[in-house]
């Protein structure tokens, strides 16, 4: 979620030599617009240190550019992070490809499909239990029913973050297996106005899936929420395994 922020923290800013009068914020934005037509300036970061360049974040649809400019000449000095630190590259490769190239990406995609099934089946299981209100009420009251309290904790966490987890699963399938989605998009490309509009909508939806997966659509508040949901998903794994272990132990006792 905070890949870009971590890259900036771990990559020191270059220095510039103060020369002449520092350009105004408006003039620097105008320089960025001239350098990158078609992109909009989304954010400008400035520092008090006179030897520090300014950072300009530009966007055009799903595309982003994070550039630095000389505040005195307005010259484009390149990417804010020319190359990500190796530690972040390793984490990204692990997340996307499980450190195993295309085979790891395929395994990741199968995991995303399985994760989507877990989300849907978990919601169905929870919905079936909604009618049994007494079970939930007993789980809250019963100090001796550890398994019931564990179930209630698991269900509450799962329902709370269900939309985010399902969005991750669906977008993870797309990111792992983009070819079928691209094929569908190509099939929509036709000569008619209707097919062109459908292709444009489909393209926006696919771009939106990427933004949704990484929480890039509403600033750091959404990224923070996404990070919390990621922690909750780990707790769901732990509580799910604990419930399975309790049931397996109870089943073995009945058989013996």
Description:
With 256 residues, the protein is an alpha+beta fold. It has two domains: 82 residues, no CATH class; 118 residues, no CATH class. The protein is 67% helix and 9% strand. It is built from nine helices and four strands; from the N terminus they run ααββββααααααα. A four-stranded antiparallel beta sheet has the order 1-2-3-4, covered by helices on one side. The longest helix is centred in the last third of the chain and has 37 residues.
Give a short summary of the structure.
This protein is an alpha+beta fold and 256 residues long. It is built from 9 helices and 4 strands, in the order ααββββααααααα. Strand 1 (40-45) and strand 2 (54-60) form a beta hairpin.
User: Strand order, biggest sheet?
Assistant: 1-2-3-4
Radius of gyration: 25 Å
* Overall helicity: 55-70%
What's the number of structural domains?
2
Q: Termini distance? A: 49 Å
Beta fraction: 5-15%
Overall pLDDT, averaged?
Answer: 86
Structural class: alpha+beta
**In this structure, how is the largest beta sheet organized?**
4 strands, antiparallel
Order of helices and strands: HHEEEEHHHHHHH
Shape: elongated
Determine the oligomeric state from the structure.
Answer: single chain
Number of helices: 9
Count of distinct strands: 4
Uncertain segments of ≥5 residues (pLDDT<50)?
none
């Amino acid at each position: 979620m905070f890949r870009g922020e971590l890259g900036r923290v771990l990559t020191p800013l270059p220095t510039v030599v103060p020369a002449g009068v520092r350009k105004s914020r408006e003039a620097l934005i105008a320089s960025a617009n001239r350098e990158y037509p078609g992109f909009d300036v989304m954010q400008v970061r400035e520092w008090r240190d006179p030897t520090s360049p300014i950072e300009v974040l530009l966007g055009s649809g799903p595309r982003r550019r994070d550039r630095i400019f000389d505040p005195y000449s307005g010259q484009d000095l390149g990417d804010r992070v020319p190359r990500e630190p190796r530690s972040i590259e390793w984490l990204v490769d692990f997340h996307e490809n499980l450190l195993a190239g295309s085979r790891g990406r395929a395994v990741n995609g199968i995991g995303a499909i399985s994760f989507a099934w877990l989300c849907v089946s978990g919601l169905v299981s929870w919905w079936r239990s909604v009618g049994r209100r007494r079970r939930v009420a007993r789980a809250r009251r019963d100090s001796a029913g550890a398994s019931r309290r564990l179930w209630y904790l698991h269900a509450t966490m799962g329902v709370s973050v269900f939309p985010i987890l399902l969005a991750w699963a669906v977008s993870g399938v797309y990111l792992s297996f983009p070819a079928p989605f691209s094929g569908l998009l190509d099939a929509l490309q036709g000569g008619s106005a209707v097919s062109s509009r459908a292709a444009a909508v489909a393209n926006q939806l696919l771009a939106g899936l990427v933004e949704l997966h990484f929480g890039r659509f509403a600033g750091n508040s959404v990224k923070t929420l996404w990070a919390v949901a990621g922690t909750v998903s780990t707790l769901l794994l732990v509580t799910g395994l604990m419930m399975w272990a309790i049931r397996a132990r109870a089943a073995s006792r009945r058989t013996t």
